[in-house]
Model the fold of this input.
Amino acid sequence: MASEPDRRLRGPVRIVGTGLLGASIGLALRDKGVEVVLDDVSPAALALAVDYGAGRHPAPGDAPQLVVVAVPPDVTAAVVERELATYPDAVVTDVASVKSGPLERLRAVGADVSRYIGSHPMAGRERSGPTAARADLFIGRPWVIAGHDDISYQRAAAVEDLALDLGATVVPMDPESHDRAVAVVSHAPQLVSTLMASRLRDAPGEALGLAGGGVRDVTRIAASDPGLWVQIIGANAEHIRPVLTALRDDLDRVIDALADPAATGAPRAIAETMASGNRGVERLPGKHGSTTRFARVVVLIDDRPGQFAALLTTIGELGINLEDLRLEHSPRAQIGIVEVSVVPEHEQRLVEELEGRGWRIAAAWA
Amino acid sequence: MASEPDRRLRGPVRIVGTGLLGASIGLALRDKGVEVVLDDVSPAALALAVDYGAGRHPAPGDAPQLVVVAVPPDVTAAVVERELATYPDAVVTDVASVKSGPLERLRAVGADVSRYIGSHPMAGRERSGPTAARADLFIGRPWVIAGHDDISYQRAAAVEDLALDLGATVVPMDPESHDRAVAVVSHAPQLVSTLMASRLRDAPGEALGLAGGGVRDVTRIAASDPGLWVQIIGANAEHIRPVLTALRDDLDRVIDALADPAATGAPRAIAETMASGNRGVERLPGKHGSTTRFARVVVLIDDRPGQFAALLTTIGELGINLEDLRLEHSPRAQIGIVEVSVVPEHEQRLVEELEGRGWRIAAAWA
Done:
């Protein structure tokens, strides 16, 4: 990875909290030969993480160079404060999803924040516990390093190196900007997805039978863990609320327009809402941060093992790189519907070559 | 397909409107040797669809057995009325996304609804125009047949046969139930996605750089065509409004809780919202209508042509069927992140076999 040899972590690294993130960081560091000390308020969780090879039990005289606090958001600041006091030579970071609150609380209690820098690896939210831990969890993922003025560049580098050593992409961002950013790209979308999914609770079964890819996409993350999210949302309420309030104002305008959809101004209100959504979604960066638009080709496959691989082998043989791929299943038929995205220059050739080989194309558009 | 030979369409079938749906129906019927007559208010669009092989120009003396009206929602009822009057022996259907309105308007003007039955193929919303038309567009997709009391079983069968001949799955549903169903599983999710995407318009670029799979899923359909959706939403306002109003009430509770997230009742309000979303999304049927839960395994691949196919070939060789697949790209690194879903019984073996072959597993959970 990109770090220079002279900056690499030498350890020992102490990890407090052996859930998915803590145990995964431990596994990844152990793979690199770094000595890892684990700790957890739950002796059972700690023993399990040690069994999984994420590190060793703490011992008297441990003198960590770096402490990683990977505990639930509501206890993060308190644990960081304790670790700063216990290990006066260590740099301490945490991996909680909200970054302003812990720093503010640490400053309020007079903790030595010249040795603390928060961070946030954007990985692993869908599952939990040390048994799900993986050394490769962070590869290719953004890892925010939430810098502030009271820590030196040299000390912050220890946390940056941790992220780089684990294969993540370092994203420097101040705590306030981080919290505003995750409010709009993560926390508000979570709540919006949840609120839409709630509307499915009382829908008739026959209505759910008509559900297509759209509602599935919108509500997918509504399956997230309530316990974790109550803490995340509570901790970032200040920044989530204005996003949701603005959304509610837009929603009220739509609801008003729907009361009399033929009234003067109503169609325009709906059209402007739709166009505004178009412009918003266009701002999301694509593959590897690019904003290139791709052509999409929908191929029908029989729903049997090997069919899908055969299709992708064919595409690979044509030398065409897949930019994106989505698999849908027909709600009732034994048919797989595969939507592949390619650069627009390849669309026509892909369709012709696939049709020439007997594949059925249900749609193609740039 | 499932229709008996004595019920098969013999044609000629007249299709009014040569956009994506009309032209695709034409192509599919032509493939089956059925005579197709096309018509369109735009001579250029008509000529193009004829060029594409979707059917022939109309001629004096045409006596269609079946008329399919595939025009924009706002003119659907008027065109159906005209077709019923012009071809007094034909059964007429339409393919608009909203079904109560046209039937009510036809009854109000005294049209012969004993020969009209609305329908709604759930396909093709993402693109438009005859050049995107495909004979296979409807394969494996639900096609709602919106029955009512004034049409005989025998006549309705002509429309059912059309759907079956085109490879769709017939879903009988009365017009009111259809409109309520699409309000909650299609139209409200569209607006919710759009409203969330609108919040991205003013977000800082660095915030968008942190966008992960969640916000992308939630906002994907926000890229939909405003012109079409203004008509759909306007036509089904009556049923969309109560869904959005209930959602707004839930949203208001969340916004209130966020004003003072530590206040008595606030964490509980957020937890209940999250749990309610969990229950809603669990109701969506999975593959082929089943509600089985799948295990998921996240595999890292180099982002080069052929890597993806190699992975799927390996999975195919293990005899493990893919239930679902999602491809993510790392925002900055040249890494592909592939999430495959398999039946839970196969998870452990899949992980072991892939790791044994040198694939990197970033996560696995049931």
Q: What stands out?
A: Chain A touches chain B through 144 residues (CB under 8 Å). Residues 175-198 of chain A form the longest helix (24 residues).
